[in-house]
Design brief:
GO terms for molecular function: dynein intermediate chain binding; protein-folding chaperone binding. InterPro entries: DNAAF6 (IPR026697), PIH1D1/2/3_CS-like (IPR041442). By secondary structure, this protein is mostly beta strands. It has a domain of 73 residues: Immunoglobulin-like. Helix content is 3%, strand content 34%. The strands form two sheets. Strands 1-2-7-6 form a four-stranded antiparallel β-sheet, with no helix packed on it. The longest helix is centred in the middle third of the chain and has 4 residues. The protein is flat and about 60 Å long. The chain starts with 34 loop residues before the first strand and ends in a 10-residue tail after the last strand.
Amino acid sequence: FEVKSENKKTIWNTEEVPEGSEFDDTWDPREKPEYEIFFKQHVGTEDVFFGMTGKDPSTACCEDIVIKIKLPETKYSDITLDIQDKVLDLRTPKKKLLLHLPYPVNSKKGRARFLSDEETLEVTLRVSREFDFINSS
């Protein structure tokens, strides 16, 4: 076994630690909120009627991930949201959610909105994919 880092006293490289593990705190007493994950894709008539682009209803053809998080008794100003390429980290005074995303996302092209009448935070994230015959936009 050989340590491959610059500092011989470290026991692992930073590349070996999964993204988001710095947020994982098992001793945090805050409750995990209810959430749902949806996948969204943009289709046109060439997809629906003719099947010309090769898209199908699978998540492999989706462009966006939509995450709806229930946050009862929470104000918009109390929400802290951090999005990384593979991790969503949400914190409020009463709730905490560390969610490892099913696909890498573009953390710069996301948007979030708080629906106060439903007490729900809706986060829409653009999936980062390699261009192929299905994902060309």
